[in-house]
């Protein structure tokens, strides 16, 4: 069930809320998760040339920080996993793109693959979404969607090679 709690734009003045709300993309009235994932693309582009080890370290840091960021904002809003909290989509997309070939087509394929898994929530993503709560619960289903999308991209890359 979608939350009807409106998030005032003034929340963006708080740096933790600014991050949790995906730099403001979470305030979009329609499809905030999609816009949050779009916000991840420039972040990905900025770190895409890092070595795989450094890239994975950044994704790990962002994901662990995301647990606290999402937990704090959800508690302040008094809504678990408010649709406007999209930091989890940013982390999920960054995880999707681990060791994926560079290029605009791969960035778009990663976007589509991640959104499919995040929206459809096949098992076990759906189970995590329903049973794990707090900041960890907000993050975990999107991170698993990112793992699944990453595997699909690597499978496609293997078939194309």
Write down how many β-strands occur, each being a DSSP E stretch of 2 or more residues. 0
SSE class: mainly alpha
The string of secondary-structure elements, in order, is HHHHHHH
Shape: globular
Major beta-sheet overview: none
Helical amount: 55-70%
List low-confidence stretches: none
The total count of helices amounts to: 7
Average pLDDT metric: 95
| Number of separate domains | 1
Structural features, described:
- With 161 residues, the chain is mostly helical.
- 68% of the residues lie in helices and 0% in strands.
- The protein has 7 helices and no strands.
- Helix 3 packs antiparallel against helix 4, helix 3 packs antiparallel against helix 7 and helix 6 packs antiparallel against helix 7.
- The model has no long low-confidence stretch (mean pLDDT 95).
Keywords:
161 residues; 7 helices; mainly alpha
SSE layout:
Blueprint: H1 15-20, H2 32-47, H3 52-77, H4 87-96, H5 104-120, H6 125-131, H7 134-160
Helix pairs in contact: 2-4, 3-4, 3-7, 4-5, 4-7, 5-7, 6-7
Quick rundown:
The protein is mainly alpha-helical and 161 residues long. It has helices at 15-20, 32-47, 52-77, 87-96, 104-120, 125-131, 134-160.
């Amino acid at each position: 069930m979608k939350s009807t709690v409106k998030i005032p734009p003034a929340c963006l003045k708080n740096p933790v809320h600014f991050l949790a709300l995906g730099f403001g993309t979470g305030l979009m009235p329609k499809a905030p998760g999609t816009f949050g994932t779009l916000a991840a693309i420039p972040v990905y582009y900025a770190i895409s040339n890092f070595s795989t080890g450094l890239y994975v370290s950044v994704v790990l840091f962002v994901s662990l920080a995301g647990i606290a960021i999402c937990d704090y904002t959800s508690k302040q809003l008094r809504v678990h996993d408010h649709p406007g909290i999209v930091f989890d989509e940013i982390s999920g997309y960054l995880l999707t793109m681990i060791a994926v070939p560079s290029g605009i087509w791969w960035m778009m394929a990663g976007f589509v693959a991640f959104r499919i898994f995040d929206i459809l929530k096949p098992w076990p993503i759906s189970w995590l979404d329903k049973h794990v709560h707090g900041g960890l619960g907000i993050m975990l289903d999107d991170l698993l969607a990112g793992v699944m999308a990453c595997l699909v991209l690597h499978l496609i890359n293997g078939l194309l090679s």
